[in-house]
Amino acid sequence: MAIRTRGRSDLRMSNTARKDLHDLIDALPPGEVQAARRYLEFLRDASDPLAGLPDDERARLHASLRVAEAEIAAGQAVAADAVLRQLRAAR
Q1: What is the DSSP letter of 28?
Q2: Is-contact 58 1, C-beta < 8 A?
Q3: How confident is residue 13, by pLDDT bands cut at 50, 70 and 90?
Q4: pLDDT of 52
Q5: Dihedral of the CA atoms 50, 51, 52, 57 (nearest 10)?
Q6: Distance between CA 5 and CA 57 in Å, rounded?
Q7: Alpha helices, DSSP H only, in 1-91?
Q8: pTM of the model
Q9: What is the pLDDT of residues 48-65, one digit of tens each?
Q10: For residue 79, which phi and psi values (nearest 5 degrees)?
Q11: CA distance 44 to 48
Q12: CA geometry: angle at 21 spanning 15 and 16, to 5°?
């Protein structure tokens, strides 16, 4: 799995955006704070679809992905349409 790194300008924009978000949160009416919190938690969790998995399941999934990436790199992958043809033929 490739990891993308951010440049200095991305980090600076990120810090500015975070400060803007903090300012917005500070300006919220008290009755809207919980709704904002739930929405921010939703966004956080949506950015990591594995967030709700137990650690052992996450580890197994990551291991499976590493195996699949190695198989693809070695030319051992089977295209989805080929798999579907094999499944149809087995009926």
Answers
A1: S
A2: no
A3: low
A4: 79
A5: 50
A6: 26
A7: 8-27, 33-47, 55-73, 80-89
A8: 0.42
A9: 778 778 999 989 999 999
A10: -65, 150
A11: 7
A12: 25
Distance CA 1, CA 49 (A): 15
Q: CA Rg, the chain, in Å?
A: 21
Tokens 């009926």 sit on residue: 91
Q: Position of tokens 């295209």?
A: 79
The DSSP symbol for 32 reads G
Tokens standing for 33? 């704070």
| Token code pair at residue 73 | 């790199």
C-alpha of 91 from chain center: 36
> Which residue's structure tokens are 């917005």?
24
Residue 37 tokens read as 């919190």
Q: Which two tokens stand for residue 78?
A: 């089977």
